[in-house]
Structures are given as C-alpha cells and as structure tokens.
Amino acid sequence: MNWIELVYDKDCPNVDAARANLREALASCELPPTWQEWERSAADAPPRVKNCGSPTLLVHGRDVALSPDTEAGHCRLYADSKGGFHGAPPVDVIVRKLKPHTENAVTRFSGVAPVLGVALLPKLTCPACWPAYAWLLGVMGLDFINYTPWLLPMMAVLLVPALGVLAYRAERRRGYGPFILGLVGSVFLLAGKFYFNQPIVEYGGMAILFTAFVWNAWPVTKSRSEAGCPACFAPEKVS
C-alpha cells in the first residue's frame, strides 16, 4: 500500500484541487509525486475508505486534517493557517504532515558518525609512541597534539546530540527502544575506553550504539489495523 492515499467521490468538484495541492506539497518536501487514489464507490476500493468524506488525504493511513466534516457522502471543508476554509486540504496542512517523513537514513545516521570517529582515536598514553605519531601526522602536514585529555569531554559532548537524534520524535518511529539501547551502548563505550581500558567493551559499546541507529532508521510499516483515518470506519452501534 502506498503511504499517501487520496480518497474521493467520482463527482467531487474538489478532487482536482486536492491533487494540485498534494503535488505542490510533495514538491516542497522534495518527495516524488506518487500516491494511491481510491474512488469510494469503485469495486476495488478497500472497506476502510468507504466512509471517508471527499476528498480525504491519508498519510500512512492517517487523515491529514482531523476535521469534523468526515462523513461519507459529504464534501469536506479544510481550515488553513489564516482561518479560511477550502474544499481541498491546503498545501501547508499537507506539508505539516509530510515533513516528519522526509527524514532519510543519512540524516538519522549523521548523529552517530562523529561519535564513532572520535571513539576510534587512540589514547596517546605511551610517551615512547609520540615520535611515531608526530612523524605520521607530519607526513600528512599536521602538527602533533596530545589530544588524550580532551577525548572524554569530546565523547561526552558528541554523545548528547547523538542520543538526542534517537529520542527526537521517537514515538513516530520505533518508540524509545533505540534511545535506551543507544544509552546502554554509550555507557559501554565510555566505560570500555576510559575506565576499564578494555577494547572489547569499547567496541561492543560502539556496535550497540550503531545497532540503535540502524533500528531507529529502519522504515516503519503500519499494520492493517492501524491504517485508516478516524472516519474511515463506521462507529459501532450501541444497543
């Protein structure tokens, strides 16, 4: 199922405006102009869209505007940010719903890259090795600096935004599981590198932290029971 769906009646006068606004919103979010359309009375229309008003726009099965005008057989009205009303979802309303889904895997992995890069830097605890490091850096045109005292503060500072990436809007992706896993990985990473001085603990923490970011970036697939706007199912009759 396409994650963007347009539900309409075949005689709806606002469906063309809905398509135009959706196309403009997708272009604004730099998303491809593709979506699924359902004509409510068509034989292939799924039952979950039969009770939607026209036009209704669903993003991952959720109505872009939770307005009260959602009954089947009725033309819908949508409020814009200026207090006006339209027969099709306004562009700004659609963009607001699409924005959370424009984050890609590269964006979500950007937080962990600096942490892993700094974690791989060796601690310069052996003065006898400093000439070798100085020679290697000199070959690359860099000056030798004993950065070891700054490694722990650098790691701590970089871990804060990295964990923030895992926590930000977590409920819209995989919940707080990746954040908790990333927190555990961070503890192992810091303890292994700066307290126990055990590479196996350090690398284990790096692996756990990387796994947390993979988990966080993995696409979320809505189950069939979660799909559908609030008006896409007829209310239960109470006897």
Tag the structure with descriptive keywords.
239 residues, alpha+beta, 2 domains, 4-stranded mixed sheet, two-stranded antiparallel sheet, 8 helices, 6 strands, elongated, membrane, transmembrane
Furnish the topology, listing elements before pairings.
Elements: E1 4-8, H1 15-28, E2 36-39, E3 56-59, E4 62-63, E5 78-79, E6 85-86, H2 91-98, H3 105-109, H4 112-119, H5 130-139, H6 148-167, H7 177-195, H8 199-217
Parallel strand pairs: 1-2
Antiparallel strand pairs: 1-3, 3-4, 5-6
Helix pairs in contact: 1-2, 4-6, 6-7, 7-8
Question: How does this model look, in words?
Answer:
The chain is of the alpha+beta class and 239 residues long. It folds into 2 domains: 95 residues; 74 residues. It is built from 8 helices and 6 strands. Strand 3 and strand 4 form a beta hairpin. The C terminus is likely disordered.
Can you tell me the number of structural domains?
Answer: 2
Please describe the biggest sheet, giving its number of strands, its sense, and whether it closes into a barrel.
4 strands, mixed
* Rg calc: 26 Å
Give the low-pLDDT segments. Answer: 221-239
In helices, the fraction of residues equals 40-55%
- State the assembly state of the protein chains: single chain
Strand order of the largest sheet: 2-1-3-4
Q: Please, what is the average pLDDT?
A: 77
Shape: elongated
State the total count of DSSP E strands.
6
| Residue fraction in strands | 5-15%
- Following the backbone from N to C, one meets helices and strands in this order, namely EHEEEEEHHHHHHH
CA(first)-CA(last) distance: 35 Å
Helix count from the secondary structure assignment: 8
Structural class assignment: alpha+beta
Transmembrane segments: 150-168, 175-194, 200-218
Keywords: Membrane, Transmembrane, Transmembrane helix
Protein name: MerC domain-containing protein
Organism: Nitrospina gracilis (strain 3/211)
